[in-house]
Structure formats: C-alpha cells, structure tokens
Amino acid sequence: MESAAGAVVEVTKCVSTPIGKYWKYHNGIYENMDTLKQRLEELNCRKRDIESRLNIELIPGGTMLKNEVELWLGRIEKINVEIKTIEEKVEKVKFFSRASLGRNVIQRTEEVKELHKSGEFPNSLVISLPKHGDVLPTTALGAGETTFKRKMEEIWSCLMNDEVTKIGVYGMGGIGKTTALEHINNLLLERKEKFDNVIWVTVSKDSNKINLQDKIARMLSLDITKYEDEIIRAAELLAGFDKKKRYVLILDDLWESCSLKDVGIPEPTRQNGCKLVVTTRSLDVCLSMSCKAIPMRLLSEDEALNLFLDVVQDRSLLSSPKFDEIVKAVVQECAGLPLAVVTIAGSLKGVVDFNEWEIALEDLRECTKGSASDQIFEKLKFSYDRLNDKKLQDCILYCALYPEDHQIDRNFLVELLIVEGVVEERKTRQSEIKQGQVMLNKLVNVCLLNDTTGSWGRKYVKMHDLVRDMALQITSGSPRFLVKAGLRLKSVSDEENWSDVAKVSFINNDIVDIPSSVEPPKCPNLSTLLLSNSHLKSISNNFFLHMKCLKVLDLSYNYGLQNLPESISDLVCLTALLLRSCESLQFVPSLAKLKDLRMLDLNKSGINEVPHGMKMLVKLRYLDFNTRHLKMIPARILCNLTNLQYLLLNGDHYKAPKVRGEELVNLRKLETFEGVLYDVRSFNTYVRSIEQQTLTSYVLQLGFNGTSTWRPVGKLVYLMNCDISESVAAGGEFPLLLPNDIEYLSLQRCYTGVSNLCKLASFKNVTKLRHCRIIDCREIEHVFSYSPYIFPLLRSLEYLELSGLLSFRGLFLRDRERRASSSPLPPGTFSSLKRLQLWCCNKVTEVFVNISFPPNLEELVLYDCSELREIISITSESDDEDQNEEGSVHHAMNIITLPNLRKVSVARLPKLESLPLVADSLQEIDLWDLPKLKRIPLLDRESRPSSLQRVSIHQDLWESLEWDHPNAKVQYLRQSRQ
C-alpha cells in the first residue's frame, strides 16, 4: 500500500498539469507503453540496418566511423536501457504514480521518433582515413633487365639521400620511366620509415595549371573547384600538403616545366623531409626545375632479348639455329626500346611458322625510315597491323576515344562494343559479353592494352599514351575520329569540320552549355557522339539537326543536365541512348520513332515517368530503369519488349516502381532482371515462368519499403517489409514459390504468418542456395525442418545470418513425436557453411543441437542473445523435454578444431558458458560482456597461432579468465604492451 506522503507528492505534481493531459498520461499509460515499444523496435531495426551497412563500409585501415553515427548509436544504447527500466516500472506502477510515469513514456516516445528520423544517414556512414598512397599495378621485372634495375636503384638512392630533394627522370616515350616509378611508388609504400605519404599524379600532354591543380587536389582529397582564382587554389593546395608531413610527390609525364609556388606545391627541402620526382621526355624540364637529372637508358641487346623471350614465353626458339638468328634480328629492330620490345613480342606470341617470322622481320625493317618518333609509331602500328582482325583493331581504335591515361571500365566498354557492332551479334547476351571480354583479353595479351584493378576489385583496361597516340594517328585518316577527350574545353567549337567524321569524343570536359549560337555541325557520317562527364546543363535543340546517321549518343554523368532537346526524337538511326546519372534530368522526349534503339540507360537519372513511345521500341535489348523518382510503369509496355535481354527496374529502395509478373512472362529472352514484384501472386506468377527464360542473374524483390546495402551478384530473392501472412491464410501448401536455382535469400521485416521458414516457401528442388539472411521477422521460431529435401540445400549453404528474430528458438523445428536425436542429419550437413551470424535473438539457448559443428566455418559472430548458453549441445534420446525450461539436458563438449576459422566476434551473451573451439588459422577475436565465460580454448594454448593479428577482450572478462597455460596469458599481455 502506498504511503500517504507518496500520494500527496504525486497529486501535487499534477496540480499544474491540465486535467485532460493528466488523464491522458494516467489512463493511457499501457497503450502508450505499447506504442513506445513499437517505436523502439522500429528504431532498433534501423540500428541493425546501420550496423549491416557498417559491415560493408568499414574497411580496416581505410575508413572510420563518423562521429555523428557513433553518437547516434551510443544514444540508442542508452535509451534502450532507460526504456527497459521504464517498462519494468510500468508493470509494477501504482495508481497514483501513473500520471508521472505516463508523461515519461510519451516523452521517451518522442525521443525515439526523433532518433529514428535522425538515423536516416543517406550518405556514407564512414569517413576515409588518410591514405599513405595507392599501390599501383606493375609488370614483373625480368631477370635480365639490369639496365632498368640499375636505374631504379639510382632513383631509390636519390630518394634516400637527404641532400637530393628534386629528381627528374627523363627519356623518350616507351623507355620505361613510368614503369620504374610505379615500382618505386609501391616500394615506398612498403617501407614507411622515411616518408609518411606517396602522392602520385599523372599530368599528361594536355594539362595546364588549372588542370594540374585539380588533379593534385583530388589526390589530397580536397575540393578546390569552387575557387577560380589560381592564387587561392594554390594556397588551398599548400595547406593540404602541410597535412601530409613527409611525402614524396610524383608528377608523371610532365611535358613542360612549372613553378611549384604558382601551382601550390611546397618547395621540398632537407628540413621538411619532402621529395619531388618528375618523369618527362625532356632534359630541359629537369634542368629548369632544378632537378637531379637521371636519364633512362635503352636496353642492351642481351637485355632486350631476355625481355622479348619473357613476353613471347618460348625460350626454346633459341635452340633452333634458324629461329635463333631471326629472333635476334627481330629484337634488334626494337632498338632497345622496352615498349617496342613488349608490343612486338606480344604480337608474335605463339607464332611457330618460320615463314611468318620472316614476313614480320621484313615488315619491321620497313619501319626504320623517318625520324625516331616516326619509327616508334611504325613499330607500334606493326603490332596493330599484325592483329589481322578488324574487330580487334576497331576495339583498339575505340579505346582511343577515352582521355589519356583513363581507366576504362571493362564491363561498360564491352556494352558499348556490343551496340557499336564491334562485338558480333550472337544468340545470347552472355555469349556477346564473353566474346567482348575475350577480345579485351587478346589485346592485353599482345600488350596493346594493360589490365588494371580499381576499388572493390573492379576491372579496367588502360592504354599506354604512345599506343593511344598511334591509334589517334590511324583515326586521323578515313573514317576520321575527332577526339577532344580530357582537354577541359569550355565549349564545342563550331569551327571544326565534322563533314567526314565518324566518331566524336568530348568525354571529360567543362562544356556547361551548347547554345543555339553554335552552328549545328554538318556530319552526315557521324555514328558515335560521346559527351559524357562534361558538366553539360543544356543543349540547343538544333545541335543534332544534321546527325541523321547517329547511332550511339552518350550523355552520361552530366549531373546538371535538365532537359533534352526535342530533336533527339528524330534520331531514327539511334541504337543506344545513354543518360546514366543525369540526376537533374526529369523528362525525355518521345522515343516513338527510335525503332532501332537497342540500349536505353536511364540509371540514376531524375526522370519520374516512362518516356512516351516506349512500347514502340520492339528491338530494345538493354533497358535500365534503376531511377530514383520513377513512380510507375504503365501496363502493356514491358510485355511488348519481347527482345529484352537486360532489364533493371529497381529504382530507389523507397520508391521502386512495382511490376506485375504477368508483364514479364513473355520476356523469353531475358537474361538479367532486377525488379520489385507487385504482390505475392505476381511474384509466384513470374517464378513459374522463369524456367522458360534464360536468366543468368536476377534480383526478385517483394515489398521493399526500406534500405539495404546487401546486394550480391547472382540469383537473389529479397523480401522486405512485406506481409505474406494473408497468402498463408488463403491456403495452399506453400504461399511463396522460390526459383529452383536461387543462390541468395533475404527476408527482412516480413510478417510471415508461419513460424518455420520451410512452411513459408518451397525448398523442394532448391540445391544451390549459398546465402540466407533473416532479419527482424518476429514470427520465425525455426529456419529449417527435418525434411529430406532440405538436406541438399544445407550442404550448399555458405552464409547464414539471423538477426532480430524475437521468437527464434533454434535452427530446426524439433518433432515432439519423433525425437530430434532419432532423426539425425546426414553427413555433410552444413559442410559448406563459412559464415554464421546470430544477432539479437533472445529466446535461443543453443545454436547447434545434435548437429556436427560446421567443419569449414571461417567466421563466427554471436551478438546480444540474452538466453544463449551453448553454441553446441547434445540431447539424449531419453531426455524428457519437460524436465527443465531449456527442454534438454546439456553434456560436456569436447574441444572442436576448426581448421579454417579466421574471425570470432562474440559479445553481450550474459549466459554463455563455453566457447569450445580451437583454430590454427585464427586471425581476429573480439570478446566482451560475457560474464559466465571462464575459459577460451582459442587462446589458452602453449603457443600463439602464427596467423593471429588482433585480440580484443574487455578488461573485466580478461581479469576473470582461468588459464590452463599461464604462459599464454603472459604472451598476450607482452604483445599488447609492444
């Protein structure tokens, strides 16, 4: 019974509160508490989404969490604790205390709503850590290239010499200046004792001061584009360099000397410990910039021969007297120039016909006429001519449309080569893509293109600037190419004669506007116009007036482009219209006349409705509608596009246009599809039709009113924020059909109507499932059942993530009539499982019950499961399930050895008693908030695993641990102090 004093206090508090609000707080406390818990659940769902994004965005040593995100996550942790306390008080609240506590509930509800709103974080959650530099792709150094290696040693010696602050490496094009510095760059990054940072800037022939400043700014992660004054820009760069401490700045391919002060580069001195290295074709550039000049030398005959044989990959040629003589004669024609040796050797790789070698030698000897530069051109053209394949030659010439030193995305280049007809039409799109990649591989193999790898492993190709110069010289004839790429031009000149031009490239320029005052170019032969990434905001309507034969128009990455001229509607020969990332573009004129169009790319454009005339594009094969604002796709459009092979309809995750399965059934040629299906019925309709299509990859989505960064490549079904319970209630053996060849399955925030995943969807013929994610599905109690058709699936599963499953009790539904132990799983179950994540599942007590631990597990993450006692347990057949609240009797487990386990992260498991694992390949272990854990066999060993890189254990846990090998604890303590 409450004391009188307590009652008086509560009543006094309420005197100043309007009586209506008082009764609202008082009478509505339980209803408001339910609302608060619902809002908190939504907030925690968003928190888990953020944490999932962090798993992708956080790169060890590369990025760090933003302060605002860290603060937000901390506030959520705090408010969860506070609301838990409030919930306990509400359950025990006395009558006179309700109003005060009820007001607290409403206040906390508003706080939770505000936290949910502030946690949208549309941009990245992390910031990039300062990089020491970029590791550059390099070619292997041949064993005999002693001249080249001696020059590298000379450059390195100068870098290590405090008296030398500026170094100039000079020599003719193709002699190996850049290659040498690429190796030096990587060597500096390996040995960080002398320099903190290495900054590589490719200058190129057409650079001016503004362009050079922009390139340096990008490498310093600065934005100076808002400044027009060169002095202010230079000051910003100086400040940026100051933060780099001791650095080496490499300016590659500098054609003219420049004033460091005017550009914004601090003068390197012995005191600041900085160095400047330039590569140039001119000794004068080195001398005028007061550099220590180091000339690159031509290879000796023996060195050139060794390099040649390394590329040809056939040293047995020298064993035959006649081949020995002709090979040496061919190498002699290369005149010791490394680029010539490599490209000519590439063109002769695999040639075993002696007559062909003789003809090649005759052709090479014809290249010795004219100046040195002419000879270099002719020798490179020799490799081009020897391709003997017009398609491969066209591919090389097409690459020359890109700016100098540009990394060309392999996949997108192949798409363009397909629509340009360089890749011949084949039965399937995948076959054409493979053919395009084979062509690029051949050009890399003969050393006319170089392979490079960008961030996230993306593949690119790149041309040596001399090879590009050779290609441009070829295209200066007929049919002529007009290439103004990467020159930072401010306008399209109307003085240029386009009358005989076949292809025009203005990629990477600063052309904001093409006004009506510009005379429409007369170009009856123009087939390709590339204007991507040129800062365009407007184009006059008459600009395309005389481009009647135009086939490919690329306006991609012009973020400010707002309108397209109506005259595009009259480009009846157009086969490709590319408007990718034109974010300000909201309207596309009628496409009704463009009946030859095969590729339409509107990815991340700003359009909000389907262009008029879409249903007339019956030849369309590639359609990307992955747009942010598209509201809907009218009926009877997609079903007319029966030649479609590639279709993306994802849209923004919150506003993706939904499509009915009936619209897709007749797209029999479809090979790649991503889209949101209208409802379960539409989803099942389309899944039934998949067997009649040739899909090689798909993303089938249902619901999707949220965000996710989980987007693997393959065959994916993604259900998010959808209610499947109505379909369950409607009857049927399985409410949801799954494609037989599904590889990835994700359920997030779905109302399922069933407690077991195997009752929701048919897995009968599913044997290739690799990844399974179930997040925030409150009804799911078990994932699998003891059914024979499940076993093949479990042998292929590689990744299992279960998160926020409030009702989850175990992986398998246990049969009360037939004991789980009497239904053992067959050998090989979970044999492919590499990664297991279990987050926020508060009813599960054991992970694996009567199941062998996954033998090939590589990563184990267990987090915030309040009832989890054991990772693996054995249940006896005679155990009575009603004997105790856990429903099983636990037995002591032997230590389990996992040969491939690399990472263990276990936290916030208040009842976890054992972690009986040992792994020789362990690299990382994180343990905290495990009050009942006393031993860690992973660490308690006579010798520390050689692979172990990081140990993170909360201090309280560390102090409470018991050790069988006391020396193990000592060695970890010693390591932590170093």
TrEMBL record:
Tell me the GO molecular function terms: ADP binding; ATP binding
Keyword Ribosomal protein appears in the UniProt entry: no
Q: Which domain of life is it from?
A: Eukaryota
Provide the NB-ARC domain boundaries. Answer: 149-316
Keywords linked to the UniProt accession = ATP-binding, Coiled coil, Nucleotide-binding, Plant defense, Repeat
Coiled coil ranges: 26-53
Would the keyword Nucleotide-binding be found if you checked this record's keyword annotation? yes
Q: Which Pfam families match?
A: LRR_8 (PF13855), LRR_RPS2 (PF23247), NB-ARC (PF00931), WHD_DRP (PF23559)
An annotated GO BP: defense response
Q: InterPro entries from the xrefs?
A: Apaf_helical, At4g27190-like_LRR, Leu-rich_rpt, LRR_dom_sf, NB-ARC, P-loop_NTPase, Plant_NBS-LRR, WHD_DRP
Disease resistance protein At4g27190-like leucine-rich repeats domain location is 824-914
The text of the family note is:
Belongs to the disease resistance NB-LRR family.
Record-given protein name: NB-ARC domain containing protein
Q: Which organism is it from?
A: Trema orientale (Charcoal tree)
